[in-house]
Amino acid sequence: MKRKLTFLSVLLVWSFQTVGAMAQNLGDGIAAFSLQDYETARAIFEPLAENGDGDAAFRLGWIYEGGFGVARDPVQAQAWYGRAAQHGHSEAKQRLLELQMADPKAMSVARLEEAAAEGSVKAKIELARLYAAGDGVALDKDRARSLLLSLCQEQTSETIRAYAQVALEAFGDETHVCVEQ
């Protein structure tokens, strides 16, 4: 009888701990993070992210990218941002792109094209450079010009337009004016 009571007591304690852990939600993780209890925040976010919570996955990416309570790990950060992006988290898509653009040569041309189509200025600049030089892609000066012209037309940043203007002039294209002289 004593063995059964001990077993039941252990089972009861374990079940309360399990229910307590399951009851933790994103808000609990955010609270722990804001109190700089990064280990607890990570422990809360991980099971949530593993179960498809894009916000939790994004916050894990942030933890690994910033080195909050863990060693900085851009590979882990990209993995968590990637999971969050798969669940439609727009900030995660942006952070993932920014981390990948930190080393544009590591990105595939297809991914750069996708990012450029989504409006990424960095991706358009990198693609224009690749196509203009034939660096890892077939030389395609028309595609490079097209990307630079899109920067002229779409950008409100004077610096980006000036960059595009100089690059177009390097192609010998004096007909397009990105920046008022």
Automatic annotation (TrEMBL):
Transmembrane segments: none
Classification via Pfam families: Sel1 (PF08238)
Keywords associated with the record: Signal
Leader peptide range in chain numbering: 1-23
Keyword Signal: yes
Residue stretches in coiled coil: none
Protein name: Sel1 repeat family protein
The organism of origin for this protein: Iodidimonas gelatinilytica
